[in-house]
Amino acid sequence: EAGVAQSPRYKIIEKRQSVAFWCNPISGHATLYWYQQILGQGPKLLIQFQNNGVVDDSQLPKDRFSAERLKGVDSTLKIQPAKLEDSAVYLCASSYEGQGGSPLHFGNGTRLTVT
Amino acid sequence: GQNIDQPTEMTATEGAIVQINCTYQTSGFNGLFWYQQHAGEAPTFLSYNVLDGLEEKGRFSSFLSRSKGYSYLLLKELQMKDSASYLCALVPDSWGKFQFGAGTQVVVTP
């Protein structure tokens, strides 16, 4: 099966600019996650979707980050305006059930550098 | 959060065995997962425990003790390609919200 697709692979922007990341999950996976992984740390959940509804966005900095999954398939994550501390790898993941028994399948991530 | 604790780094020689411990502070959770992450790559699923006990998958095994609040990942017959970060993750509820530890960097030496 095709894996989780993410683009772009790398992005360099200046602070205060905006950026968007795209993710297409594995076909048939209802649950989609966006994680932020800062170098040397584990992935931190930003937002979780079940189909096109938000399950958890408690750790999403909503003053600058937004995400949508309008048709319950692919998703975009946007940062506007970016800050230096947003430099990280943004990982998209999907799972079949989202009920805790299905493993996450990760995309290759987008490495964001904010200068 | 679940205060997931893992050692930062472990070093072992090729062919040896290494045990990576993961401790947590949470009263209930749906499952505990282990992921492998090579530098610059995405995490990949290794193992999953729901019930107490040992789950074996080839050279990798994972153990869970809910009463003692810990899990470990056992890597046997280490190979150079096993050099990676190993992430422990809890799923605290039925909504599949994975919470990850900081990861343990395993360095395999010749």
Head-to-tail CA distance between termini of chain A: 37 Å
Helix/sheet category of chain B: mainly beta
Share of helical residues of chain A? under 10%
Rg estimate of chain A, integer Å: 13 Å
* Overall spatial form of chain A: globular
Order of secondary-structure elements of chain B: EEEEEEEEEE
CA radius of gyration of chain B is 13 Å
Tell me the number of strands of chain B: 10
The count of DSSP E runs of length 2 or more, i.e. the number of strands of chain A, is 11
Order of helices and strands of chain A: EEEEEEEEEEE
Share of residues in strands of chain B: over 45%
Number of helices of chain B: 0
Q: Label the overall shape of chain B.
A: globular
Can you tell me the residue ranges of chain A where pLDDT is under 50 for at least 5 consecutive residues?
Answer: none
Subunit arrangement of the protein: heterodimer
- Main β sheet profile of chain B: 6 strands, mixed
Describe this structure in words.
The complex is a heterodimer of chains A (115) and B (110). By secondary structure, chain A is an all-beta fold. Chain A has strands spanning 5-7, 10-13, 19-24, 31-37, 44-50, 53-56, 65-68, 75-79, 88-95, 105-106, 110-114. Chain A starts with a strand and ends with a strand. The model of chain A has no long low-confidence stretch (mean pLDDT 93). Chain B is mostly beta strands. In chain B, strand 8 and strand 9 (99-100) form a beta hairpin. The interface between A and B is medium-sized, with 29 and 26 residues.
